[in-house]
Amino acid sequence: MKILVTGGAGYIASHTNLELLNAGYEVVAIDNFSNSSMESIRRVEKLTGKKIHFYEADILDKEALTDIFSRESIQAVIHFAGLKAVGESCEIPLKYFKNNLSGTITLLEVMQEFGVKNLAFSSSATVYGDPATVPVTEEFPLSVTNPYGRTKLMIEDMLRDLFQSDPSWNIAILRYFNPIGAHESGEIGEDPNGIPNNLVPYIAKVASGALDKIHIFGNDYDTPDGTGVRDYIHVVDLALGHIKAIEKLQENPGLVTYNLGTGVGYSVMDIIHNYEKACGKKLPYVIDPRRPGDIAVTYADPTKARKELGWTAERGIDKMCEDTYRWQSKNPNGYRNL
Predict the structure, then answer these.
(1) Which residues are catalytic?
(2) How many structural domains compose the chain?
(3) What is the pLDDT of residues 100-116, one digit of tens each?
């Protein structure tokens, strides 16, 4: 079975590519390298001993997508491609709307033209906004607190409308919580361009000496230590969730939605302390004002994914930090240290 992976050189996609290949799928990947590197593709091929059919292209480019679908017998799509930083989305919302929404519409149009109607969509826990209670189930009301989250919710709405108009689609909406960690080989991991927007890559840069201190955005939240609490999930567990979703799509389930999280909340300080344990040293930090769009607490209820997909996150916070540190130690400049 041949799977198209959009944003295929990115962080979550690279780990998913590896698990897809290990599970016997063929992978066709597309990426425009706006926040990724071809080196991740090469390393996945090296780790698996298998080839990825790779195309450098943008999902906004309908002609390029049409060409790829013409060349490859694609049977399902995992759609990762998109801009993804909460803070940045508040500063440049139009860029996020154009890239994430228009790109998805173009992809769906081409899928429809070629009769490819199996899709796993990379959504986000941000669609729950600031939940009234935790843990968060898939039935919670949907709302957003930032433009990035709004693009995810709008795409979800598009997919629900598309399915209503044509029930021959099979769509898995996967709401990720906070992916961190790296493959245990240390060969692939998170490699953002420039200064990282997300907590754990930033911590890793401080631990390596590339950045001088960690910035904690707010310590006055209503949480045990005042810092924000999130459900951090190991990227390999998340990747394995996509394998289960692809298997589910083959059962013709219609439109299904799953939380992919651990069900455990960790604060920013919890993550810092666990990373200190992994790297064996204290890390300097400073308290900054809260960021717009951030919320106090969110973590998943992953029961539905366990029952319907047979999927459970198995790697704990120690493993997440250990694997991140191994990746950072072996690749202090990410994929650019070659």
Answers:
(1) 148
(2) 1
(3) 999 999 999 999 999 99
